[in-house]
């Protein structure tokens, strides 16, 4: 049979038949790709649903703490009892993390303001998102500082607990700027990054023993936490304030009156939530 691999004259019918065969082979790939995309969407939907359930529970327990006028010592004792009542270590770790987040909302200095703080969080986050969609060059101070809405909410609780009052968009914007500045100038994190850079330079120097690289290595190895703290600049107020949208932003779930421990499970119920969600176990424990 003649070798036609270098033949510049192509048979259109042959090419069409071959292409059809290749498409058939690729069909399994496109099917797998579509299935993976659907699985990722379902996973994201499940994650969003879990976050919604978490926020409803947090709001509910904050109100319960307010109604019962729980002290910080009582809140700590209740949380410890819930954790130790779990039978296995994995469940204990999961519940311990979430009950720790709940405690931040149940704090006597925070609990009365939880609904308004969540509403303010939603307003600020939505404002930033809308402006970013309208103009991709707009800054994103909230996303930069907190990454996710849920993390932003917890950080706002901590700010209130520490005595920082967050009442409007400018307050939260200033807090986001402060948070980013703290993260950016965290000496422990910077030292860790410098250690990584130093290791990379040492590796380069083994292959390319340039004197200047050696000088850089010595200089970086001499940097310590004290030097970083001395060189750290003071925070600058340079975050651009975004206008607050005028449209109504969805409010957090309303906590019913006459709240009791016995009806916590009903309040936290969500038909879209993952049935294996560990937060359900927390509600069962508190309702017991």
Task: Characterise this structure.
The protein is mainly α. The protein has 2 domains: 27-185 and 233-287, no CATH class; 186-232, no CATH class. It is built from 12 helices and no strands. It is extended, with a radius of gyration of 27 Å. It starts with 11 loop residues before the first helix and ends with a helix. The model is unreliable at 245-280 (pLDDT under 50).
Shape: extended
Mean pLDDT: 83
Strands, total number? 0
Structural class: mainly alpha
Number of domains: 2
C-alpha end-to-end distance: 82 Å
Helix content: 55-70%
Instruction: Quickly count the helices.
Output: 12
Q: Biggest sheet, in brief?
A: none
Radius of gyration: 27 Å
Low-confidence stretches: 245-280
Note the beta-strand portion: under 5%
Oligomer: single chain
Written as H for each helix and E for each strand, in order along the chain, the element string is: HHHHHHHHHHHH
Please give a handful of descriptors for the protein shown.
single chain; 2 domains
Tell me the layout of helices and strands.
Blueprint: H1 12-68, H2 72-84, H3 89-106, H4 114-134, H5 141-146, H6 149-161, H7 169-184, H8 187-207, H9 211-221, H10 225-231, H11 264-268, H12 279-287
Summarize the structure in short.
The protein has 12 helices and no strands.
